[in-house]
Amino acid sequence: MLASWKSPKGGSVKPGRMSVDSRIPNTGGGGHMWDSDASFSSEGHHRNSVGGRDVMDFEGLNIESYMSSSRVPPGTPGRPLRIPKAGKKQGETITKGHKNYELMLNLQLGIRHAVGRPAPPTSLDLKSSAFDPKEKVWTKFPAEGSKYTPPHNSCEFKWKDYCPLVFRALRKLFKVDAADYMLSICGNEALRELSSPGKSGSFFYLSSDDRYMIKTMKKAEVKVLLRMLSAYYNHVRAFENTLVTKFFGLHCVKLTGTIQKKVRFIIMGNLFCTEYTIHKRFDLKGSSLGRSTDKPEEELDASTILKDLDLNFIFRLQKSWFQELCRQVDRDCEFLEQERIMDYSMLVGIHFREASKAGDLIPSGARTPTDDSESEQSGPRLSRADMDQLLIDPAWWASVRLGINMPARVERAIRRMEGEMQVMEPTGEFYDVVMFFGIIDILQDYDISKKLEHAYKAMQYDATSISAVDPKLYSKRFRDFIFKIYAEDL
């Protein structure tokens, strides 16, 4: 299936194509193009304005079906999309004998002590002194116990809480119950360590119920967070629908004795904590250099993190949600730009609502009562009118938020090469989905190492294609890209 736009004179013209790295190919004088503000402009076509920005309007989209041959190559319209094979449950359970077993015990003891100790009622109106980087609380945990700490089977260690009043207020702001928080992280169930560290060298741990992710941090990252903590607090307090990562605690474990090892870590919300199966995951930056998965196709499964050059969908949201997305991405990027942060990503998870028993995804409107299909246990399929009605139902708002549990549609896009540039072309083939998305990795500032990385790579590659760029340019490129891959569902 190919998408084409009707010209004002009644003919048909080929649609402008969007470059996945936000560069716009020159199509010559007669073609329609995505402009730099992520709009679709042409005489006779409508333009919607969202927050002062023109956004693409697909009114007049004409879909034609064709089959070029009996054998359909991968990525060609007509070849059915399939549910990715299920991935293994993420992470290795940390049991006795694991190299990080004692570290996990120390972490759980420290959090239980920090969160569970008596404290006056938490106020959201904090004094500036609460954000002072020197605002730390050290607690010693001897193995035999003390007046303030219980005896334990681990080695002696010291525990540090950074800005405890701030993170207590953040947990209240994010409506985290203290007892549930401790039960998730410090209950009888062990944490799970993800199988391999991230590119940064940090290790990640998941709580047993998947609600919280714990990441080890470098000292430089801790400094960045403490520097921007006041601005972060004010931002998430002002904008309830912010997409930036939710932080719940910043701590350090210092092993005493001969090792004298320090492990700093942050506790964050897990975006993909849901009853829905996440079938597709994307980490999107808006850059192109090195932005594709390095796994062969046969090894891809539902747990694989795909990247910009692997993207083959346009995400379509209800009008009100799309408008709020545009506003909130602007707010969040302005905040990150002001804090000199770059290299962040939009993490996206997609749950496809329907597939056949054979594993083929069923496009929107393609299902009939006699179809041999299976619908997820997420309720019946909803018409767009029904979905609009749900979105104004107070009970629905309890589970649906911007970026969380969002009913949406994705439009399949075909990847093509134009010269040395990969482009995406919409097909008019839609799928009903539930979406999850948020902005992650927000603790990388444009420090000397990133400036050197930019200078080195810019000598070898197109400077606009690399991730390491100035925060102002990064913010603009990121927004331009997001406003191209998200669109209003008309």
From TrEMBL:
Molecular function (GO) terms listed? 1-phosphatidylinositol-4-phosphate 5-kinase activity; ATP binding
Q: What is its EC number?
A: 2.7.1.68
List the GO cellular component terms: plasma membrane
- What start and end residues bound the annotated signal peptide? none
A Pfam family reported for this protein in Swiss-Prot or TrEMBL: PIP5K
State the CDD domains in the record.
Answer: PIPKc_AtPIP5K_like
**Any single biological process term in GO:** phosphatidylinositol phosphate biosynthetic process
Give the record's keywords alphabetically: ATP-binding, Kinase, Nucleotide-binding, Repeat, Transferase
Superkingdom of source: Eukaryota
Listed InterPro entries: PInositol-4-P-4/5-kinase_C_sf (IPR027483), PInositol-4-P-4/5-kinase_core (IPR002498), PInositol-4-P-5-kinase_N (IPR027484), PInositol-4/5-P-5/4-kinase (IPR023610)
Q: What name has this protein been given in UniProt? A: 1-phosphatidylinositol-4-phosphate 5-kinase
Give the organism the record lists. Saponaria officinalis
